[in-house]
Design brief:
binds cytidine-5'-triphosphate; globular; 6 helices; alpha/beta; phosphopantothenoylcysteine decarboxylase activity; 29% helix; binds calcium ion; EC 6.3.2.5; eight-stranded mixed beta sheet; Rossmann fold; two-stranded antiparallel sheet
């Protein structure tokens, strides 16, 4: 009889979660970003904490959260990768909920870019950012569990299955970002949990916290099997 096992299934487990849309500097006053609010990552951190985990949340931007969550602010993809690598040492699980900018400026401007003539064009040279989830997936240690998201506007399941393999993830949370009750800056979400040898399971539409709790339940199962 271990009553706390059911109440706090992640007691003694260390979970690292990313959240939010990264910001990639253009110049000292401007950046490139995307439409992610970070709400899903913060909801996952709260759900993991409620399940008894020791939680490190590596977030691109600050939102209110429980003081027991170890919040590490990392605005850019490069900063996020560095913070995640550090936090993953000895961790049991990684959940990549951040909307990481796929591109960053090859060389951000040192000074504010000024307007020149009225018809002037500005071309930005973008290079690919490091893939945080893939890096963690490739360096996965025995017993560790890696969960990724897939933000898709078409071919949801097909694209999610590809990401399961290419990222070395145990679970992909597939998000149809154009669905009416899913996606950016909403308080609700609808996702499909995609695993290698199981039929996809749809969760929601319901609050992001309710969806997060179900993802954490799945994480508990994966950790028990790992
Ligand atoms: N991800 C990441 N680092 C990146 C890009 C994505 O960690 N540089 C993670 C996201 O946090 C998410 C997963 O990878 O968990 C999938 O992100 P998504 O944008 O859907 O896929 P990409 O691999 O970036 O491919 P694409 O955007 O071309 O579909
Ligand atoms: Ca992407």
């Amino acid at each position: 009889e271990l009553p706390e096992r059911d109440d706090l299934p992640l007691a003694g487990r260390r979970v690292v979660i990313t959240a939010g849309g990264t910001k990639e500097a253009i110049d000292p006053v401007r950046y490139l970003t995307n439409r992610s609010s970070g709400k899903m990552g913060y909801a996952l951190a709260e759900a993991a904490l409620a399940a008894g985990a020791d939680v490190t949340l590596v977030a691109a931007s600050k939102r209110p959260c429980s003081p027991a969550i170890r919040l590490v602010l990392a605005p850019s993809a490069k900063a996020m990768l560095a913070a995640v690598k550090k936090a993953m040492v000895g961790a049991d699980a990684f959940i990549a909920a951040a909307a990481v900018s796929d591109f960053a400026l090859a060389k951000p401007f040192d000074q504010k870019v000024k307007k020149t003539s009225p018809d002037a064009h500005l071309t930005l040279d973008l290079v690919q950012n490091p893939d945080i989830l893939k890096t963690v997936g490739q360096q996965k240690q025995p017993g560790q569990v890696v969960v990724g998201f897939a933000a898709e506007t078409e071919n949801l399941l097909e694209n999610a299955k590809k990401k399961l393999t290419s990222k070395g993830a145990d679970l992909i949370v597939a998000n149809d970002v154009l669905a009416p009750q899913a996606g950016f800056d909403k308080d609700s979400n609808q996702v499909t949990l995609v695993r290698a040898d199981q039929a996809p399971v749809t969760v929601g539409p319901e609050s992001k916290l309710a969806v997060a709790k179900k993802i954490i339940q799945e994480l508990v199962r994966l950790l028990d099997q790992a």
